[in-house]
Design goal:
By secondary structure, the chain is mainly beta. The chain has one helix at 206-217; strands spanning 3-6, 9-12, 24-25, 35-82, 90-102, 110-122, 130-132, 135-136, 140-143, 151-156, 161-163, 171-176.
């Protein structure tokens, strides 16, 4: 099985090139009995994409654009999302296993109570999004993603790896982040740094966290004060 490795994290990728596996083109992600299996869904420009109580298994979703998407209780196993615009997506009460997102727009998205296990986000835009009670139960990698002004609330992202991501003004509101690997990312403008207990950083990033904490505390530096 193919995998993607970044430092200590290794994500198992969707197994879509196995001998005997044939992906059929489908025109909808609404399958019979709530299952869509061995499929390819591509080149769709939609106003809405609503899925509920659905299981996506062994498939590719490519070049799909929607103005509004709502996924509730949608399980995805061995699925590739590539070059999709799912801005303003709301994905809730779901589990993703061996799922990849590459070159996808997820700006303004809300991921709420979503469990991630062997998930890779690569070159994705999460700006102004919210991750609410998202839980990583297996390896998860964010590689070269933008998460500007993203709110990460009450999540368990222990052992999740961020590689070369744009985290400007990203805010952490509680949660668990033990061994979350933030090495190689600029942390100077993070908000809620007190929540980042036991994360993994480089020594050079200590100054970045100090700068972020000083900005959050709105401290005044003595050299900027006229004592006369």
């Amino acid at each position: 099985m193919d995998s993607r490795k970044v430092r200590r994290a290794s994500v198992a990728l969707p197994a879509l090139d196995e001998p005997g596996l044939y992906l059929s083109n489908v025109t909808s992600l609404e399958g019979g009995r709530g299952r869509v299996v061995e499929f390819q869904y591509a080149d769709a420009d939609l106003r809405e994409l609503d899925l509920a109580d659905t299981h996506l298994l062994d498939g590719r979703i490519q070049h799909v654009r929607t103005q509004r998407a709502r996924f509730h209780e949608v399980r995805a196993d061995s699925v590739q999302f590539s070059d999709c615009d799912l801005s303003s997506l709301k994905w809730s009460d779901s589990k993703l296993s061996r799922v990849t997102f590459s070159n996808c727009k997820l700006m303004g998205a809300l991921l709420e109570e979503v469990t991630l296990d062997n998930v890779l986000f690569e070159n994705c835009k999460f700006d102004y999004s919210t991750l609410d009670r998202v839980r990583a139960t297996g390896p998860v990698i964010f590689s070269k993603c933008t998460l500007r002004e993203t709110t990460i609330r009450a999540c368990n992202l222990s052992s999740v790896t961020f590689e070369a991501c744009d985290l400007r003004l990203a805010e952490f509101e509680g949660g668990k982040y033990r061994d979350c690997d933030l090495r190689g990312n600029d942390l100077t403008t993070l908000r809620g740094v007190a929540a980042l207990k036991k994360v993994l950083i480089d020594r050079a990033q200590v100054a970045q966290l100090a700068e972020a904490l000083a900005a959050e505390l709105q401290v005044t530096y003595g050299e900027d004060v006229d004592d006369e």
